[in-house]
Amino acid sequence: MTIQSIVEEILQTRCFTSQHETLIHRLLCNRCFDDRDLLALANLTEAMIQGAVLR
User: Fold this and answer.
1) Ramachandran category for residue 42: left, alpha or beta (phi over 0 → left; psi -120 to 50 → alpha)
2) Distances (CA, A) of 48 to 5, 12, 33, 51
3) Is residue 8 helix, strand or coil?
4) What pTM does this model have?
């Protein structure tokens, strides 16, 4: 699983759960990410700011 795939799921369901947060945190801590994952996180942040994703 990649950060990008997790973010795609979040954007599709419009719901960011603690499980998503934990998975993303683990991938970041283990440095298992690339530029596409960072772009996906930027898109998720923007969606959250706009209220398109609920926490």
Assistant:
1) alpha
2) 17, 13, 21, 5
3) helix
4) 0.94
Cα–Cα distance measured from residue 40 to residue 44, given in angstroms and rounded to the nearest whole number: 6
Q: Which residues contact 7 (CB under 8 A, 6 or more apart)?
A: 24, 37, 40, 41, 43, 44
Return the residue matching tokens 């954007």: 11
Residue linked to tokens 């795939």: 5
Confidence of residue 55 (pLDDT cuts 50, 70, 90): confident
Q: Which residues pair with 54 in a beta bridge?
A: 15
> For residue range 12-43, what is the model confidence (pLDDT) as tens digits?
999 999 999 999 999 999 999 999 999 999 99
